[in-house]
Amino acid sequence: MQMQSPALASADAVPVLALDRVTKSFPGVTALDQVTLALYPGQVTALVGENGAGKSTLVKILTGIYQPSDGTIKVDGADIRFPTARDATRAGITAIHQETVLFDELSVAENIFLGHAPRTRLGLIDWRTMNSRAQDILTGIGAHLNPEAKLRDLGIANKHLVAIARALSVDARVVIMDEPTAALSHTEIHELYELVEKLKAQGKAILFISHKFDEIFRIADRYTVFRDGQFISEGHIRDIDESDLVKMMVGRDMDQVFPPRDRNPGAQVMSVSGLCHPTEFDDISFDLGRGEILGFYGLVGAGRSEIMQALFGITRPSGGTVTIDGAAITITSPADAIAAGLVYVPEDRGHQGAITPLPIFQNVTLPSLGRTSRNGFLRLAEEFDLAREYTQRLDLRAASLDAELGTLSGGNQQKVVIAKWLATQPKIIILDEPTKGIDIGSKAAVHAFMAELAAQGLAVIMVSSEIPEVVGMSDRVIVMREGRMVAELSGDDLTPEKLVRQAAGI
Amino acid sequence: MLKRYLTSREALLFAAIVALCLLIATRFAGFVAPSNLLRVFNDTSPLILLAIGQMIVILTKCIDLSVAANLALSGMCVAMLNLAYPDLPVAVIVMVAIGLGALMGMFNGILVWKLAIPPIVVTLGTLTIYRGFVFLVSDGSWVNSHQMSPAFKAFPRSELLGIPMMSWVALAAIVIFTVVMTRTTLGRAFYAVGGNPHAATYTGLNVGRTQFWAFTISGALAGLTGYLWVSRYAVAYVDIAGGFELDVVAACVIGGISIAGGIGTVGGAVLGALFLGIIKNALPVVDISPFWQMAISGAAIIIAVIVNSRTRRNTGRIILKSAEKPA
Amino acid sequence: MSLSEHTTGRHIPDRLRSPLEARLKSWESLLLLVAIAIFVANSFASPYFLNAWNLSDATFNFSEKAMIAFAMALLIIAGEIDLSVAAIIALASTAMGAAVQMGAGTPVLIGVGLGVGLLCGAFNGLLVTRFGLPSIVVTIGTMSLFRGISYIVLGDQAFGGYPVDFTYFGRGYVFWVISFELVLFALIAVIYGIVLHKTNFGRAIYAIGNNPTGALFSGIRVARVKFILFLLTGLMSGVAAICLTSRLGSTRPSIAFGWELEIVTMVVLGGVNILGGSGTIPGVVIAAVVMGLVTFGLGLLNVPGIVMSIVIGALLIGVIALPRLWAMRRG
Question: How many CB atoms lie within 10 A of CB A317?
Answer without folding.
Answer: 24
